Every structure is written in structure tokens, then in C-alpha cells.
Amino acid sequence: MEVRVAGDARIDVLKNNDGYSRAVAAVAIGEGEVLAPFGARETLATPNYLTVQTGPETHILLSPEHLQYINHSCDPNVFFDTTRMEIVALRDIPAGEEVRFFYPSTEWTMDRAFDCLCGSSACIGRIAGADQLDADALQRNAFNQHILDRLAERLAVLAD
Ligand SMILES: [Zn+2]
Questions:
Q1: 159 alpha carbon to ligand 1 midpoint, in Å?
Q2: CA atoms lying within 13 Å on the CB side of residue 120
């Protein structure tokens, strides 16, 4: 069973008996709507398992803190827009649905790579950051500007 341990008017963070936490929509959110604005509790120069990358060398600890329980999916329903500093719904999200984002949309190289078990038909398996994605995964997903810049740099080097 799950217990609500944190959240706000639009997000519930639920924790189960195994200590696993996840964020679900507390109310229905329409496609394109902002689920939550976010900021930095702290900015670090290197990533850790809790940080979100917002620039080439900036990794933030999220504020409000409960946003750190938004887990990864290869078929995400929200996008962390690190330019606008807002979490935006990629599609209609009914109340009670888990909200998840595609970690490589913000992370170039992750501190802790892991094998994804999201179960989506689009699942890419090993999640290690945008640096490790194949052309198919790059085409299917949305990315932040600092990731697009790195991808463009890589193409420029290849073209040399
Ligand atoms: Zn997956």
C-alpha cells in the first residue's frame, strides 16, 4: 500500500512499503499546461542521482524538493523545460496517473546509469544520458537547449 508523504495542490508523492516513492497528478492536467514551476535549492557543478541538469555545467537540486520524486519513463507525460523552469504536460494527464519525464531530456551524462523497466514499447533499456542515445531515441523525444547544443557540437566534430 502507498501513503502520501509530500506534494502540493497538483502533485501527490506516494511511498510504498518498500520505500519506493513516485509522483502522481493530484488533479487532471491538460496537455501543454504547467504542472509546476521549479527552481534550484542548490546548484552543483557535477551531477548526482537527485540533480537535474540545466546547463553545460549546472546541475540543480530541485525546489520544491518533492519534485525530485518524478521518475523516468521512456514514454513520458511531462517535460522539464530548463529554459522556462517549468514542468509541462506532454499530453492530458488524468488525476492519479504517475507523472514521469525522460531523464536524457535534461541529462547529458548521468551520474548513475540504470536499466529501465518502464514497460513502454518505446523503452530504450539502459538509461545513461543523452550522450548514449541512438538516432531513433533522439528523434522520438524532446530535449532541452543545453542538450541540443551538445548534440550539434558532436555533429560539427563529425563533419570536420
Ligand atoms: Zn524505459
A1: 31
A2: 16
The candidate with the shortest Cα–Cα distance to 47, out of 58, 35, 31, 36, is 58
Strand partners, 131: none
Q: Kindly report the CA angle at 123 between 117 and 126, in degrees rounded to 5?
A: 70
Which tens digits make up the pLDDT trace of 82-141? 999 999 999 999 999 999 999 999 999 999 999 999 999 999 999 999 999 999 999 999
User: Domains of the chain: which residue ranges?
Assistant: 31-91+100-159
The cell for 118 is 518502464
How many other C-beta atoms can be found within 10 angstroms of the C-beta atom of residue 105? 21
**pTM for the whole thing?**
0.95
Cα torsion at 148, 153, 158, 160 (round to 10°)?
A: 140
3-state secondary structure 93-109: ECCCCECEECHHHCCCC
Question: How far does the centroid of ligand 1 lie from the alpha carbon of residue 133, in Å?
Answer: 12
Ligand 1 centre to CA of 115 (Å) is: 8
Residue with cell 560539427: 156
Q: 73 CA distance to ligand 1 centroid (A)?
A: 5
